[in-house]
Amino acid sequence: MPISAADPLLDVAGLCSGYGKIRVLTGVDLKVGAGEVVALLGPNGAGKTTLLRAVSGLLPWSGCVRFDGSDLTGCGPRDTVKRGLVHVVEGHRVFTQLSVLDNLRLAAYDLPRSEHAARVEEVLELFPEIAAKRRERAAWLSGGQQQILAVAQGLVRRPRLLMLDEPSAGLSPVLVDRVLVVVQRLREAGTAVLLVEQLIEKALALADRVYALARGSIVLEAKTSEADLPHRLEQAYMATSSRPG
Question: Is the pTM of this model over 0.85?
C-alpha cells in the first residue's frame, strides 16, 4: 500500500537521540504508511539501530514521533507494543533457558489467555524450523534459529508496524529467505514493516521505499522503483563520508 503523506502510520519529524551526552541522530524525518515496507539502509555507525530504539521507547529522544495519529512522547517499550508497534532488536534476544513455546507465550503475556494458543500456532506455521523444536530449550537452537525465534516473538503480537533490526544477521541464506518471505506476507496482510538490513539488494527487492541514513541524518529518500537507485545510494554515502568533521 503506498504511503499517504497526509496520514502516515508512523510519522517521525526532527528526531534527535543518542546515548547520554553522545548525540547520534540529528533531526531525522521518516514516514511509514499502513501496509508499507520501508527499508532503512546505511553504513555501520550511521544511527539505524538508534533510530529504532528511540521510536520504540528504548532511548530518550526529542522531536516528534506519532504512531497512528497519537503522540508517543513519554511512551516506553510496553506502551508502544500495546499500541501495535513492535521492535525486534538486533541479535538473538531470547530466553535461552526456556522452551521455544514458552518464549512465544511470554511474548503474549498481557494478551487474553484464550488467545495465547492460537497466536503461538499461527506464528509457528510460518517458521517450521522452530516449530519442530517447540519443546526444546532456546539454548539448543542454532544462532540462526534463535534469530527466527526473536522475529516470531514479535509476530505473536500481530503488530500494525513491525520494526526489524538486521533480521538476516547470523542466518543461513535459506533462513534469510524465509524471514523475507514472511515480511512479504505481512505486507500482503496489511502489516507495515520498517526494515534495517545490510543485504541491500534483498531489502530493495522487498521494500516499497528506502531511506538512507549516514552520520545521524537522512541523506536519501526514494521509491525502490526509481532508476539507478543503487548508484544513488552509493553516491549519498560517499558524499556524506567525504564531509569534514
Answer: yes
Q: Are residues 77 and 17 in the same domain?
A: yes
Same domain, 58 and 97: no
Q: Is residue 175 part of a domain?
A: no
CATH number of the domain at 68, please. 3.40.50.300
Q: What pLDDT is recorded for position 187? A: 87
pLDDT, tens only, 158-187: 999 999 998 888 788 888 888 888 888 888
Q: Tell me, letter by letter, the H, E, C secondary structure of the chain.
A: CCCCCCCCCEEEEEEEEEECCEEEEEEEEEEECCCCEEEEECCCCCCHHHHHHHHCCCCCEEEEEEECCEECCCCCHHHHHHHCEEEECCCCCCCCCCEHHHHHHHHCCCCCHHHHHHHHHHHHCCCHHHHCCCCCEHHHCCHHHHHHHHHHHHHHCCCCEEEEECCCCCCCHHHHHHHHHHHHHHHHCCCEEEEECCCHHHHHHHCCEEEEEECCEEEEEEECCCCCHHHHHHHHHHHHHCCCC
Which residue positions in the chain have pLDDT lower than 50? 1-5, 244-245
